[in-house]
Design a protein that fits this description.
Distance between the termini: 39 Å
Low-confidence stretches: 211-224
CATH class: Alpha Beta
Length: 279
C-alpha cells in the first residue's frame, strides 16, 4: 500500500444488540472476501473499526462452540438477565455489556503487512495506548488480553479474540471502561482460576482519587498524540474512549494515515440495509 488510506470508524451510540453488531461485521467481512475473490483492480478496501456496547451478553469462542451444557448456558443467562451466543473468534467465554467498549476491526492482513501474531499485538498495543492516554500503565503477559497491576495479582482490563478467513480479520477486543464487574463472576477469565477483571474507571479512581477539581484543572491540551498521558481527561465516556482507541489503531496500523480517522455512519457502510430498515 503505497498511498496511505484512512481508517473508517463506525461508533454505535447507546446499547446495540449483539446480533445487530455481528450482522454489520459479517457484511464487512463478506465485502472484503467478495473483493478478494473478484481479483478486482480497484483500490483495496479500507479497514473498518466498529465500536459499540451491548446489553449484558456472554459469548463463547470457537473452541467452545457446542461444548457448553444446557445448565452452563442457563447459568450465563442469569435468569433472562443476559444473552448467550456462540462466536467464531478465538478465546474462551467472555462477557460484553454496558460500560464495555467492544471494538471489531475488519481488514485484510496482507494489505497491512500483518500476520495473526502481529495483528493481535497491534490490537493489544492499541488498548495499552488508550489506557496510557488516561494515565494508566497496562501490559500484556503470557496470557491473552491486556492486564494492569503486578503479577501474580494483576487484573484483566481487556480481552482479545480474533477470527481469520482467507486472511481477512474480524472481531477484536473488549475494553472494560465502566462495566459492572460482577458479571465476570460467572466466568473464569481466560480459563485462569483466581484471575479477576477490572475496568478503567476503577483503576483511574484508585490512581487519581477521582477529584473533580483535579480533572477540571488538568484537561488534555489539543494536538496531543493518541498515546499522550492525560490522566485527568473527562468524561470517560464510551464515545470518548472509542475515539482514543481508534486513533491508536490508526497510528499503529501500517499503511494507514495516523492523522485522520474517518467517522462514518451505518448508512454509509451498509446503504442497502439502511434502505431496507427505512421501509
Amino acid at each position: 500500500m503505497n498511498r496511505l488510506c484512512k481508517l473508517r470508524h463506525l461508533h454505535l451510540p447507546g446499547l446495540t444488540p449483539y446480533l445487530r453488531a455481528s450482522a454489520i461485521q459479517d457484511y464487512l467481512v463478506r465485502t472484503h472476501l467478495d473483493h478478494k475473490a473478484a481479483q478486482s483492480t480497484s483500490p483495496p478496501l479500507r479497514p473498518v473499526l466498529l465500536t459499540f456496547q451491548t446489553p449484558p451478553t456472554y459469548t463463547c469462542g470457537r473452541r467452545e462452540v457446542g461444548t457448553l451444557s444446557d445448565s452452563q448456558i442457563a447459568h450465563l443467562r442469569a435468569g433472562g438477565k443476559a444473552e448467550f451466543y456462540e462466536a467464531l473468534r478465538g478465546g474462551q467465554t467472555t462477557f460484553h455489556g454496558p460500560g464495555q467498549l467492544t471494538a471489531y476491526l475488519t481488514l485484510s492482513l496482507q494489505q497491512h503487512g500483518l500476520n495473526t501474531r502481529t495483528h493481535v499485538k497491534m490490537l493489544e498495543d492499541s488498548v495499552i495506548g488508550t489506557c496510557k492516554y488516561y494515565g494508566l500503565s497496562t501490559h500484556t503477559t503470557e496470557n491473552p488480553g491486556v492486564w494492569i497491576g503486578s503479577q501474580p495479582d494483576d487484573q484483566k482490563i481487556a480481552s482479545v479474540g480474533v477470527h481469520l478467513r482467507r486472511h481477512i480479520a474480524s472481531h477484536g477486543i473488549g475494553l472494560n471502561v465502566s462495566v459492572d464487574l460482577s458479571w465476570f463472576d460467572r466466568i473464569v477469565a481466560c480459563g485462569l482460576v483466581g484471575k479477576r477483571a477490572t475496568n478503567l474507571e476503577k483503576e483511574w479512581t484508585a490512581h487519581y482519587g477521582g477529584a473533580e477539581q483535579q480533572m477540571s484543572a488538568h484537561q488534555p491540551q489539543p494536538g496531543k498524540g493518541p498515546d499522550s498521558p492525560s490522566p485527568f481527561h473527562t468524561p470517560m465516556s464510551l464515545t470518548s474512549v472509542a475515539g482514543i482507541f481508534s486513533r491508536n489503531v490508526a497510528t499503529l496500523l501500517s499503511g494507514v494515515d495516523s492523522q485522520i480517522v474517518d467517522s462514518v455512519t451505518e448508512a454509509e457502510l451498509w446503504p442497502r440495509r439502511s434502505e431496507s430498515l427505512a421501509k
